[in-house]
């Protein structure tokens, strides 16, 4: 079976001497010969390189070796799980693959395309576009990754340590390096301080306690650490609930259209039925309970058992923030119809308009008097969104309330099969839900101390707060600039991004453009987005990836490029759109 | 709908003043009154605490509120996905839940149990039992988490920086603080140095390049970064392949018995059929191809389409390391029968006996002359095992070779639905596959320099190597001590742990014990393990969680407790076993 070329190559290595490659370090020694020691790792050695080269050359012959006559083809597109084939995920789909190709082209041949960089507006990935992480969060994470730092005297030199003008010991204690303190607290919450151990499958208990306190502070209603399941971002949590709820194609979930395609993808993967309800673009992507009722009735008439309602608030891709009154009606609907309410609340920190405020569905339900036994409610949260945008850390949680102990046990089992989520992500989830705090002292305090002490709090509070506000205010400005730009274009209407990270403009495409798309066997919105990308390097996702009222065309554009890039995006978009319309205007 | 108690509570908060709680910081100021500022986070404030207390009191009434008459119960054990109910995962099952309860009891009432601590021998989680992380890995991770450290002069003071007695610039460059250098390299591999951004769904390209080089160095055969999918530990990778391969219960996978229950759990969750093949305990858990052929034939005769063969090498829970000849026969079998070979190789660094060596299945297949097009092969690797045992970091990868481009596209889609794996885990996977290196210079080198320079390499190499060897040698000693202890017990036989992290002793239970278990409606091995836990605090997993030849009884015991605990475990186990046998001997 052994091929002689390979056998020969093997013999070569074990006997011959190779030149030590000194190219990477300035050596005063003359070039030396060395023997490859079999006990040492050898990835960079010339010996391995030569052997690999020989094997690469031989691999083409191996690859073309005739298969035994009766070998069945083990895996083909026809033989894999058909649910996988059905699943689609546009956020990383065709347009993005094209963008990556163009980026490689630009790198290989600069100047070969009509633009000099790709501007990724396809995905809510702030740090990939230059947003910096929140310093406090990263300080704590680094300390937890390598606790030995904490025990070194230098630690305080490394992390910022500014003792403010303080009046007393009390104030001094406020002014200590709180990232160090927080890291110590977190390590003390982890059994054995072992950040490298699997945790409880729901996440480290102490961190869940911290998150619980954060939820209580946010909502003003009790929360329970046993209701929390910490996960590698919100996506695995959504999959877990889909896996739990969907037994067959007869099990349906009410999902908004447009929706974040994680939902359609996950429902397809688990073999369920997506029961669409349409958000009303006319009323700023309003969620009408009458529409929910209509779609539920229709689905039931088809024999679908509708298990749950998915609500994304603030909306993705639509950017609307639900009014509390609207949320009450939704809660009432789920309660009456016996539906699980799956509340995607990952954009809870991303609200940009003063007239709207985020309310968690749990808070709304509890304020209506509905307790834990009245409603099955799952709230998804992630460290990837908000002002911090820590997508790469894969942290998040779901708060699961209202399920029977028996069903909860099944959810726990699902969590335990993957052992636990990553500990850095767990730590970050706890930080996001309990960031540095300010305690505003006023009234009687002002009798005792000077004005400059009115605001005391965690040492990091000021810088943390400046970083947070800077990002959120900038996002609001970017949302407004892009919205205005879209609205100024012929045939484009665009709702406000009240929250989240996206605009979802509607394009009235000319008949001629639709015909051209049909001729190219492409959906008209994909046709537009592809043309836009090829002309400008701007990457947006066609509306068909999210769902839209048939016959309407949209695209999703993030508000995430840094502010200095926005003017270029606007001018490129504007110029492209004009020429596109000139080409296809009826 | 609003309950009056709750409404009342709400009114209270917005108007009343609360005492500032100074318990946590030494204050020189007299107790002050402060107003809860609505813009500040308030988790720790008395205002929220009081409100929450009121709401906790009221929640009992809310919980008992009568449901609307026609509300269907949205989720019950009867209505959830039946595949979830079917799935079992013993490693975190009944025994572990009992252990956690006993631990709480010990905490609440020290001295109330016949032991003073729980000794978790149920799961391969080294750092939870006191194993320390490898310093070099954690230094690099901390630097990548907070790159600002790199730019501070103090960084070199913080991380160890020993300039060895060096002869030349060349040696000086070797002696630089390589964790800093490595962190810089890694950051340069990440687009925009953004460790907080979603990466490519297969993982950061530069890190995949590093891992590729590591695989090539290990195997001596070419690897391809495009074949790698970086994942949050090996478990999600296994799930991804199960999702791909299993379309219905007619799709089967050949799995070893005993097996790591991730496989049975994942096959159950995805609705496929586990086709068992038995490892031969008599020959040290030998894997016989004749057994594979027999079981394949039988499954096919039942109409099962067998898609893949799962092999765990080194074995879990069985600890055997396959001989290369055996691996060749397995490759040949998969090739002939058109099966995907799913190779669980997460224990590749854990081999404890000089007569055995780990060979990856890819190396074996390539050395047989089989190229990329000849065999569908997936190799799973994890950062959780090896000498590092970084379970909490959730890093790992699968190397996917031999699939058609169309099927590969589907695997990519599955990866992309969850966006990407966590970046710290990705970084760690690259470190594990390219740890600090020594370059052994000899022959002509010895003509030029003194003996003490014969070994030069990355600065961390010596300490890294000492940490690694210390752990692996200790594991080997622990494995031997426990094996000998088990073998000395009446009615217990135990194969050697050649590799991995487990022993899987066989207990010949007396008839009387089996009857007692039956009377308690418990599997006999679970009965034994529960009695062991209640008597000694030692947690092991019953063999029935892994599968075993019917009528035989086993348990899995990790070799991971620190060495100073091993004598206590041995003496407790021995005393328990003696008294158990005395109680039930025929």
Automatic annotation (TrEMBL), chains A, B:
This is alanine transaminase. Coiled coil: none annotated. Keywords: Aminotransferase, Pyridoxal phosphate, Transferase. Residues 189-565 form the Aminotransferase class I/classII large domain. InterPro entries: ALAT1/2-like, Aminotransferase_I/II_large, PyrdxlP-dep_Trfase, PyrdxlP-dep_Trfase_major, PyrdxlP-dep_Trfase_small. Its cofactor is pyridoxal 5'-phosphate. Belongs to the class-I pyridoxal-phosphate-dependent aminotransferase family. Alanine aminotransferase subfamily. It comes from the Eukaryota. Homodimer. Pathway: Photosynthesis; C4 acid pathway; Amino-acid degradation; L-alanine degradation via transaminase pathway; pyruvate from L-alanine: step 1/1. The keyword Transferase applies. One of its GO terms (molecular function) is pyridoxal phosphate binding. PANTHER family: ALANINE AMINOTRANSFERASE, ALANINE TRANSAMINASE. Its EC number is 2.6.1.2.
């Amino acid at each position: 079976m052994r091929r002689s070329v390979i056998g020969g190559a093997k013999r070569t290595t074990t006997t011959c001497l190779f030149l030590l490659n000194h190219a990477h370090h300035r050596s005063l020694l003359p070039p030396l010969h060395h023997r490859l020691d079999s006990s040492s790792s050898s990835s960079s050695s010339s010996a391995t390189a030569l052997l690999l080269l020989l094997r690469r050359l031989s691999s083409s012959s191996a690859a073309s070796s005739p298969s035994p006559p009766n070998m069945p083809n083990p895996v083909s597109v026809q033989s894999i799980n058909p649910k996988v084939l059905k699943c689609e995920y546009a956020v990383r789909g065709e347009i993005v693959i094209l963008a990556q190709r163009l980026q490689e082209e630009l790198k290989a041949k600069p100047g070969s395309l009509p633009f000099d960089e790709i501007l990724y507006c396809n995905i809510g990935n702030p740090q990939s576009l230059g947003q910096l992480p929140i310093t406090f969060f990263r300080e704590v994470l680094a300390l937890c990754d390598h606790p030995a730092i904490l025990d070194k005297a230098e630690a305080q030199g490394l992390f910022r340590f500014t003792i403010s003008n303080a009046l007393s010991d009390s104030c001094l204690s406020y002014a200590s390096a709180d990232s160090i303190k927080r890291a110590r607290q977190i390590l003390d919450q982890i059994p054995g301080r072992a950040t490298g151990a699997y945790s409880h499958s729901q996440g480290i208990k102490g961190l869940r306690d911290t998150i619980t306190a954060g939820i209580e502070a946010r909502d003003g209603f009790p929360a329970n650490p046993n209701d929390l399941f910490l996960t590698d971002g919100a996506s695995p949590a959504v999959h877990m609930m889909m896996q739990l709820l969907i037994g067959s194609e007869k099990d349906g979930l009410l999902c908004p259209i447009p929706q974040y395609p994680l939902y359609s993808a996950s429902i397809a993967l688990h073999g369920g039925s997506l029961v669409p309800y349409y958000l009303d673009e006319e009323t700023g992507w309003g969620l009408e309970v009458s529409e929910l009722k209509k779609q539920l009735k229709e689905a039931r008439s088809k024999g679908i058992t509708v298990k749950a309602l998915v609500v994304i608030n603030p909306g993705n891709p639509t950017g609307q923030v639900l009014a509390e009154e609207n949320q009450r009606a939704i809660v009432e609907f789920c309660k009456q119809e016996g539906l699980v309410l799956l509340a995607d609340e990952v954009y809870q920190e991303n609200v940009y308009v003063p007239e709207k405020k985020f309310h968690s569905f749990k808070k709304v339900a509890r304020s209506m008097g509905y307790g834990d036994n009245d409603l099955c409610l799952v709230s998804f949260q992630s460290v990837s969104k908000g002002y911090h945008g820590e997508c790469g850390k894969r942290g998040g949680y779901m708060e699961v309330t209202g399920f029977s102990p028996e069903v909860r046990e099944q959810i726990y089992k699902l969590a335990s099969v993957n052992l636990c989520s990553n500990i850095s992500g767990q730590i970050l989830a706890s930080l996001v839900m309990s960031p540095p705090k300010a305690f505003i002292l006023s009234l009687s305090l002002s009798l005792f101390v000077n004005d400059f002490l009115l605001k005391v709090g965690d040492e990091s509070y000021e810088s943390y707060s400046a970083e947070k506000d800077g990002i959120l205010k900038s996002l609001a400005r970017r949302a407004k600039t892009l919205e205005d730009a879209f609205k100024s274009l012929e045939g484009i209407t665009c709702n406000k991004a009240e929250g989240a990270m996206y605009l979802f403009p509607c394009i009235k495409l000319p008949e001629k453009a639709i015909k051209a798309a049909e001729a190219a066997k492409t959906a008209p919105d994909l046709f537009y987005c592809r043309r836009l990308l090829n002309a400008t390097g701007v990457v947006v996702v066609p509306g068909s990836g999210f769902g839209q009222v048939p016959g309407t065309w949209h695209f999703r554009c993030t508000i995430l490029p840094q502010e200095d890039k926005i003017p270029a995006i606007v001018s490129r978009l504007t110029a492209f759109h004009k020429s596109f319309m000139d080409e296809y205007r009826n």
